[in-house]
Amino acid sequence: MNRAARVRRQVVREQAAEMFARARPTVEIAAELRVSEKSVREWRRRWTAGGAAALASTGPGGMDCKLDGEQRRQLAGALDAGPVAHGWTDQRWTLARVAELIERLFGVVYTLRGVSYLLHRMGYSPQMPARRAVERDETAITTWRRRRWPAVKG
């Protein structure tokens, strides 16, 4: 969740605190603020225990990255060098390979999902390799499509 979304969410919690002070029912608060009743109940518990201050945002969720900035730069360089440079026989990076590379380089263990999040955070996106025969002749295919296909198609 980005900063703007956290600020909007904080405003909603502050509105909920005002409604708690007026003893409004959970169902009404949820409907008016367009949040779940479960969230309202949790906020009410926290408000009852610590007032409006207990509803303050605790910052962004999630874990901190296991790799520091320099390690992420080193990883980007290693990924750009390609899988062959690291002992694999083809040019495909898989999540499992990247996880193995991270463990080799930095001694840090990542799950496949964690690798996916890390790569996304670093600006990488999933790519599917085109499955084409090495012997494929683009010129012959184009010629066939122009000359032969109309006759076959009818």
Features:
elongated; mainly alpha; 7 helices; 154 residues
Describe this structure in words.
With 154 residues, the protein is mainly α. It folds into 2 domains: 3-55; 63-154, no CATH class. Helices cover 60% and strands 0% of the residues. The protein is built from 7 helices and no strands. Helix 1 (3-21) crosses helix 3 (37-50) and helix 2 packs across helix 3. The longest helix has 19 residues, at 3-21. It starts with a helix and ends with a helix. The relative contact order is 0.07. The mean pLDDT is 90. It holds the Pfam family HTH_33. This is Transposase. It comes from Plantactinospora mayteni.
Describe the SSE topology:
Layout: H1 3-21, H2 26-33, H3 37-50, H4 69-81, H5 95-106, H6 112-121, H7 138-153
Helix pairs in contact: 1-3, 2-3, 5-6
Organism: Plantactinospora mayteni
InterPro entries: Homeodomain-like_sf, Winged_HTH_dom
Protein name: Transposase
| Count of DSSP H/I helices | 7
Class from secondary-structure proportions? mainly alpha
Question: Mind summarizing the main beta sheet?
Answer: none
Order of helices and strands: HHHHHHH
Q: What's the oligomerization state?
A: single chain
Provide the number of structural domains. Answer: 2
The fraction of residues assigned to DSSP E strands is under 5%
Task: Please estimate the helix content.
Answer: 55-70%
N-to-C span: 56 Å
Low-confidence blocks of residues: none
Shape: elongated
Write down the overall mean pLDDT: 90
Rg, Å, rounded: 27 Å
Q: How many strand elements?
A: 0
